[in-house]
């Protein structure tokens, strides 16, 4: 097994091993912890509905990655992996995002048995017509639940406002109509392609032993023939799809999501990592709850407490979101835009930038006190081709001049969209909505 040890200036180190099966394994020992955390993930998410393998083009229904995640917990002998983990004293979970699916557990005991179970059930799929039909009903209820959630509806409307064709605008769960098309054969095919061990990562952290993890991997994993996955192109134009979306639902106060589309996605992982850091620092400078903009909006009674913002970046999409509650969402957007335009002209001082950079760096370093944050970062960074310790170095080396240039380019006036959920005003309107 090929192994490398990575060390950092913050006193942390981890082992990266490439197993003969093709699986990349990351191990960060924290013997002072009384628990262990493991994530087994695949670079496969909701946007991967079109792909090619061995020259053959394949198209599958929306929501199949999420459907597959659900079905993996049912084992051939009829047992449920959740129940196995529970009997071992572990908490298990899984989730699907736009570009990855992960399975995880956290335990204070029986780590070897838990890791064997994790590696076993994720690599041994079992589907039948009956179990797939049963799962359709469960996931259809989940889809309806999200459809009834004002926050979810606003968020997806924001994405639909930003993107014309990119699959990110579609619900990760798919639709009630799309999941009706999913068959066991489709699930087996997607598992064979995307759950190929060369497309997966295992990250382990906590009270663990590297040699024991390697031994368990040798016991549970067999080499799989690597396959080249050509993912469907997302030919998204620069322009946003829509500047504004308004819906009405049962809410006490209007919700809003402001989206800003990133129309300049860096082509290399290193450049994306640096942009991710720079835009995140800019976001803290502009939208922090201790900043000028927040004070202006909250002081004028335009927003409720809890305004949030974040940046999301991947090889094929990127966007910034600002979310909150307001009786005047359009006024909030107007003030946000005016504030950004002013800051583009005024800039920010070296002292302001360095202070915010230090806060961002400290926040990242604090994540090394959490086993779940460590394993989550190891998996996400591996899929993004980021280096965990290189990320910390890149924060430290970020420059004010680069941030000013990025701010002026990123927050273009024509890249904004506003999604609003307004309260239903009366019973008649509710019946007609």
Walkthrough of the structure:
This protein is an alpha+beta fold and 433 residues long. The protein contains 16 helices and 15 strands. A seven-stranded mixed beta sheet has the order 1-2-3-9-4-8-7, with helices on both faces. It has a five-stranded mixed beta sheet with strand order 11-15-12-14-13, sandwiched between helices. A three-stranded antiparallel beta sheet has the order 6-5-10, with no helix packed on it. Strand 13 and strand 14 form a beta hairpin. Helix 3 (111-123) runs parallel beside helix 8 (210-220).
Regions with little confidence, pLDDT below 50 for 5+ residues? none
> Which term fits the overall shape?
globular
* Rg, Å, rounded: 23 Å
Tell me the number of strands. Answer: 15
Q: Widest sheet: strand order? A: 1-2-3-9-4-8-7
Helix content: 40-55%
| End-to-end CA span | 61 Å
Estimate the strand proportion: 15-25%
Query: What class would the helix/strand composition place it in?
Result: alpha+beta
Biggest sheet details: 7 strands, mixed
Provide mean pLDDT, rounded.
Answer: 94
The tally of helices reads 16
């Amino acid at each position: 097994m090929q192994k490398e040890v990575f060390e950092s200036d913050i006193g942390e180190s981890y082992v990266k091993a490439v197993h003969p099966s093709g699986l990349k394994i990351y191990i960060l020992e924290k013997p002072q912890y009384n628990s262990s955390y493991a994530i087994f993930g695949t670079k496969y998410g909701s946007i991967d509905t079109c792909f090619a393998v061995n020259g053959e083009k394949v198209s599958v229904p929306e929501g199949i990655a999420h459907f597959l995640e659900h079905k993996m917990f049912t084992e051939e002998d009829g047992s449920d992996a959740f129940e196995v983990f529970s009997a071992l004293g572990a908490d298990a979970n899984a989730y699907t995002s736009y570009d990855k699916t992960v399975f995880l557990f956290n335990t204070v005991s029986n780590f070897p048995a838990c890791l064997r179970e994790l590696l076993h059930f994720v690599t041994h799929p079992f589907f039948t017509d009956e179990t797939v039909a049963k799962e359709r009903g469960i996931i259809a209820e989940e889809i309806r639940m999200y459809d009834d959630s004002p926050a979810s509806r606003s968020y997806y409307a924001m994405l639909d406002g930003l993107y014309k064709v990119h699959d990110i605008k579609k619900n990760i769960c798919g639709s009630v109509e799309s999941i009706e098309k999913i068959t066991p054969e489709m699930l087996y095919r997607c598992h064979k392609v995307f759950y190929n061990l060369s497309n997966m990562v295992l990250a382990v952290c906590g009270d663990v032993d590297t040699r024991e993890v390697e031994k368990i991997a040798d016991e549970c994993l067999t080499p799989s023939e690597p396959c080249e996955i050509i993912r469907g192109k997302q030919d998204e134009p620069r322009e946003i799809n829509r500047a504004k979306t308004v819906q009405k639902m049962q809410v006490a106060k209007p919700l809003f999501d402001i989206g800003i589309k990133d129309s300049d996605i860096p082509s290399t992982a290193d450049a994306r990592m640096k942009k991710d850091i720079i835009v995140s620092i800019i976001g803290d400078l502009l939208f922090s709850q201790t900043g000028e903009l927040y004070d202006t909006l909250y002081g004028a009674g335009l927003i409720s407490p809890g305004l949030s913002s974040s940046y999301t970046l991947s090889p094929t999409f990127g966007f910034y979101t600002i979310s909150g509650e307001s009786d005047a969402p359009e006024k909030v957007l107007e003030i946000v835009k005016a504030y950004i335009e002013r800051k583009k002209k005024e800039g920010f001082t070296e002292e302001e930038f360095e202070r915010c950079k230090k806060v961002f760096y400290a926040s990242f370093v604090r994540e090394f006190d959490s086993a779940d944050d460590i394993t989550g970062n190891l998996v996400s960074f591996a899929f993004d081709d980021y280096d965990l310790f290189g990320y910390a170095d890149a924060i430290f080396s970020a420059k004010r001049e680069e941030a000013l240039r990025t701010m002026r380019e990123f927050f273009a006036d024509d890249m904004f969209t506003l999604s609003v959920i307004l309260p239903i005003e009366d019973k008649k309107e509710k019946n007609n909505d």
